[in-house]
Specification:
The complex is a heterodimer.
Chain A lengths: L19 H32 L1 H11 L2 H28 L3 E2 L2 E2 L2 H22 L4
Helix pairs in contact in A: 1-2, 1-3, 3-4
Chain B lengths: L7 E10 L9 E10 L4 H11 L19 E4 L2 E4 L12 E4 L6 E3 L2 E2 L2 H9 L21 H5 L12 H5 L1 H5 L6 H11 L7 H8 L13 H5 L6 H21 L6
Parallel strand pairs in B: 1-5
Antiparallel strand pairs in B: 1-2, 3-4, 3-5, 6-7
Helix pairs in contact in B: 2-6, 6-9
Classes of the chains: A mainly alpha, B alpha+beta.
Chain lengths: 130, 252
C-alpha cells in the first residue's frame, strides 16, 4: 500500500502566536534577555570598581540618567517575574513524597522562597548594607 | 415541556479533509449536522460519517476517554473528540488532525514516529530481580505505587505532542508521553531498567530538548503532567552527572 502523508510545516518564527500559552512562555523567555543585559552592566561595574574609585564613580555617573533607571526597574521587575514563576513550578520538578502523600506544593515552593530570603539577607549583610 | 438534555441544534463543522489519492493540499470543508446538546464532537463526526459522507476518515474506539484514539485539533486545541462536549463550542467547530504529525488521510495523523519513540524508551517492566511463578507475586506498598501511578495513567493519545512546540520544531525530540512513560517505569520499585532507559532519555534528543513550555501538561486529558515527569528526569540526570564526576566514590 502506498502512503502519501501530508506534512504541515511549523513556522520557526511565528509558532508562538498560535495560542496564548505559547505567548506566555515566550514572554517569560524574553525576560531573561533583560536579566542578561543587567548582568553585563554589573560585570562592567565590578571591573570599573577594581580599577579604583574614579573609574567606578564615572561608571555610576554614566548610569545616572532616566533611560538606565527605567531599564534597571524593568530588569528588576522581569527578574522578579522570572524568579516567582520559576519557584512556583519547583514542586513539579521536585515533588516530596512522605508515606503515601505528596507534600503540598506550597511547602516545596515556600522552601525556595525562604532559602531565597535567607541568601538575600546574608549577601546584604556581607555587602555591609545592614 | 422541552427536555433541555436532548435539545437539538444545527452544528456547523469545518473539517480539514485530505485525500492522499488526489494530489493537492488538505482543504477545510464545511458541514451542518443536527446534533443534541449532550453530544460530544465524536458523536457529531459519527453522525456525519453515517448520514452525510461515509468517506470521512478518523480514528476512534472507546468513546469514553480511555483508548486515546480520537485525538484531534478542535478549534486549534489538542483534544479527545470524545471529551470535547458540543455544549462548550457555541460557534463553528474547526476540526483538524493532530498538529505536528503528518496527515495520513482526513483527521488521521501518522503515529509511526511516536510509536517508534515509545518502543525506544522500553516502557515495560524490566524486573529488578528475576522471579519464577512459584516465588509468588511482586509485592508493592501503596506508597511505592504512589511514586509512579500518575505517570501510568498515560493513554498514548499524543495530545501532548500536538501541544509541544519543541516537538513541532525539532521532530527528533523523544517527547512528553514517551519520556513520562520511561519515568513511570524508572520510579517503579519492581523495575531495574533505569540505566537502559537513561541511554535514550537523558540525551539531547531526550529530556534536554525540553524547555519546559508546559503545554503538554495543560492539554493532557488524564492529568499525567508530562512536564513534571520531564523536569524530574532532568533533576535526576543532573544528580547522576554530579555523582559520576565529583563524587565517584558514592554508589548510585
Amino acid at each position: 500500500m502506498s502512503r502519501y502523508p501530508y506534512v504541515r510545516e511549523v513556522s520557526p518564527t511565528t509558532w508562538y502566536f498560535r495560542a496564548p500559552r505559547y505567548m506566555r512562555y515566550m514572554t517569560r523567555e524574553v525576560t531573561s534577555i533583560f536579566i542578561g543585559i543587567f548582568t553585563v552592566i554589573m560585570l562592567v561595574g565590578l571591573s570599573r570598581l577594581s580599577e579604583g574609585q574614579a573609574p567606578y564613580e564615572d561608571f555610576l555617573a554614566a548610569l545616572n540618567n532616566p533611560f538606565s533607571v527605567i531599564f534597571l526597574f524593568l530588569a528588576l521587575a522581569f527578574a522578579l517575574y522570572n524568579s516567582f514563576t520559576w519557584f512556583n513550578v519547583a514542586p513539579k520538578a521536585m515533588p516530596i513524597q512522605v508515606g503515601e502523600e505528596l507534600m503540598p506544593d506550597i511547602v516545596v515552593a515556600g522552601g525556595h522562597y525562604i532559602l531565597w530570603a535567607i541568601l538575600s539577607v546574608v549577601i546584604l549583610i556581607w555587602a555591609g548594607i545592614f | 415541556m422541552m427536555d433541555v438534555r436532548v435539545a437539538e441544534r444545527q452544528t456547523d463543522l469545518e473539517i480539514l479533509r485530505y485525500n492522499p489519492e488526489i494530489a493537492g493540499e488538505p482543504k477545510l470543508e464545511r458541514y451542518t449536522v443536527p446534533t443534541k446538546t449532550e453530544w460530544c464532537v465524536l458523536d457529531a463526526l459519527n453522525y456525519l460519517k453515517d448520514n452525510v459522507d461515509p468517506t470521512l476518515t478518523y480514528r476512534w474506539s472507546c468513546h469514553m476517554q480511555v483508548c486515546g484514539s480520537c485525538g484531534m485539533m478542535i478549534n486549534g486545541e489538542p483534544k479527545l473528540a470524545c471529551k470535547a462536549m458540543l455544549r462548550d463550542y457555541p460557534g463553528v467547530i474547526r476540526i483538524e488532525p493532530l498538529a505536528h504529525f503528518p496527515v495520513e488521510r482526513d483527521l488521521v495523523a501518522v503515529a509511526d514516529d511516536f510509536l517508534a519513540k515509545l518502543k525506544r524508551v522500553k516502557p515495560y517492566l524490566i524486573p529488578l530481580e528475576k522471579r519464577l511463578p512459584e516465588d509468588g507475586e511482586y509485592r508493592q506498598t501503596p506508597a511505592q505505587l504512589k511514586r509512579y501511578r500518575q505517570f501510568a495513567m498515560c493513554i498514548n493519545c499524543m495530545l501532548c505532542y500536538a501541544a509541544c512546540p519543541e516537538y513541532g520544531l525539532h521532530p527528533k525530540f523523544i517527547g512528553p508521553a514517551a519520556i513520562s512513560l520511561a519515568h513511570r517505569y524508572n520510579r517503579d520499585s519492581r523495575d531495574g531498567g533505569r540505566d537502559e532507559r537513561q541511554e535514550e532519555i537523558a540525551t539531547a534528543e531526550g529530556v534536554w530538548e525540553c524547555t519546559f513550555v508546559g503545554a503538554c501538561s495543560e492539554v493532557c486529558p488524564k492529568h499525567v503532567d508530562p512536564a513534571a515527569a520531564l523536569q524530574q528526569v532532568k533533576v535526576a540526570s543532573t544528580v547522576d552527572w554530579y555523582l559520576e564526576h565529583f563524587m565517584s566514590w558514592v554508589q548510585k
